[in-house]
Predict the 3D structure of the following.
Amino acid sequence: MIRFAEERSKAYGDRITYHVMDATNEPDLLGLGPGTFDAALCNMALFDMADIRPHLSALNKLLKPYGRFVFSKTHPCFNNPHMSQRDELQYLGDECITVML
């Protein structure tokens, strides 16, 4: 997917760079440079992270003052009156976390 994105964005030259990294690894994220970004987008990924705290902490440092963080929590197909709520088990290291949806 990164290769295709790079191909499609060649017209923007060096204005867009792509990085493949763990979005929950705060030190790696901070390697992108504190105060570097005007905005950040996270599309339907937060609900797949067992612990979003490192991600949010890094974003707080990566964004410029008054920077924006735009995210979507779930896919729109799940926003309907017939959706059923359930519990989900996730593992963070050796710890099992129950998420009430």
About this structure: Residues 2-100 form one domain. The first helix runs from residue 2 to 8.
